[in-house]
Every structure is written in structure tokens, then in C-alpha cells.
Specification:
By secondary structure, this protein is mainly β. The protein is built from 2 helices and 11 strands, in the order ββββββαβββββα. β7 and β8 (about 110-115) form a beta hairpin. The longest helix has 12 residues, at about 160-170. It is globular, with a radius of gyration of 16 Å.
């Protein structure tokens, strides 16, 4: 489904309350997703589409965070394991191909990649990260801007530009934002 399409399902436009901070008047629209036991959120403007049950083909000798490639609407798109990028274990079964539950296609500038998601909760409104939230853990990657509490869950707020730059850097590919991530 494209981001221009209406997103059906369990989407709630309820507020997300930052940890230890009162809600401010301005907010941003985020998509919330779960991978394993961790919850993540990303600005919806960076999300191109949500692909259901992507058939991923592994690429021999690729870095651990590149799970493979998938053909989406005639485009070959790299599938990135967010779990591996934040220090977790992989979730793909061994073999040349795997079918994943959902892929969140992120586009930033001229770069596109798909992120694996076990569950996509939907869209929420959230106070901007510069005005609210809790700083990420000291060992969190640069693309995690902070964390907030939502429905009793701790959610890591992802910055799409920094996530794309980190994935490219880890794969040895230059990106326009390569200096943004160390």
C-alpha cells in the first residue's frame, strides 16, 4: 500500500506521552512498529509503503544487517535487519529465501530500503523529539533519536536519514549523509 492510500486496520490517533515530559501543542505523525520485543517509531513522511509478506532472497557475502533483497513494484530493494543494527540477533530462518511478515519501505532522498516488522500498530501523533522524550541509552545507535512511552511500551524513535546513512555505511556504500553517522 502506498503512503497516499488510507491505512486501514488497528490505527489509533491517540497521543503518545513522552517519558517525564508534558505533551506540547505541536506534534508529528509517526508509524509504530514492533520487531521482537522492541517497539520503534518513524516519521510517516519517510515511509513509502508497507508491503505485506515480502519474499526476501538472500545475497551471498552481504553484511549481517542486509537480510537480502525483495522485488517491490518492479524495483529491487535491499531488506535491512533493524534488529541487527540495534545489536539484537537475526530473525530470518536459514536458507536462500524467506517470507517475512511485513516490510516497511523507507525512502530518504534517492535511497530506498525495506525494514522488517513483525507488527505494525499504526499511526500516532507524538510531540517532536526536540521538545520531549528521553535521550536514548548510551549504547543506542545514532539513528535512535530518543525514546518515549506509548501504551505501556518503551518506543525508540528512529530518524530515517540517519538510519539510511548507517545502513549504507555498514554495507560499505557511500550516501549523501555518510558524515552524519560515525
Amino acid at each position: 500500500m502506498n503512503r497516499q492510500d488510507e491505512l486501514p486496520g488497528r490505527f489509533e490517533a491517540g497521543p503518545a506521552t513522552p517519558l517525564g515530559v508534558e505533551r506540547v501543542a505541536e506534534s508529528q505523525t509517526l508509524m509504530v512498529l514492533r520487531l521482537g520485543r522492541r517497539w520503534f517509531a518513524m516519521d510517516v513522511r519517510a515511509i513509502e509503503e508497507v508491503a505485506l509478506q515480502g519474499q526476501v532472497t538472500r545475497v551471498p557475502m552481504s553484511p549481517p544487517h542486509i537480510l537480502g533483497v525483495v522485488m517491490l513494484r518492479g524495483r529491487l530493494t535491499a531488506v535491512v535487519g533493524l534488529e541487527q543494527m540495534v545489536g539484537g540477533a537475526g530473525m530470518l530462518p536459514s536458507g536462500d529465501m524467506a517470507t517475512l511478515p511485513r516490510l516497511l519501505v523507507v525512502r530518504e532522498g534517492g535511497y530506498e530500503m525495506a525494514i522488517v516488522a513483525e507488527e505494525i500498530h499504526g499511526i500516532i501523533e507524538h510531540a517532536p523529539p526536540d521538545a520531549a522524550g528521553v535521550a536514548p541509552a548510551a549504547d543506542a545507535p545514532d539513528f535512535v533519536l530518543g525514546e518515549f512511552e506509548w501504551q505501556g511500551q518503551r518506543v525508540s524513535l528512529l530518524e530515517a536519514r540517519l538510519l539510511v546513512a548507517a545502513a549504507a555505511r555498514l554495507a560499505g556504500v557511500a550516501s549523501p549523509w555518510q558524515d552524519a553517522v560515525q
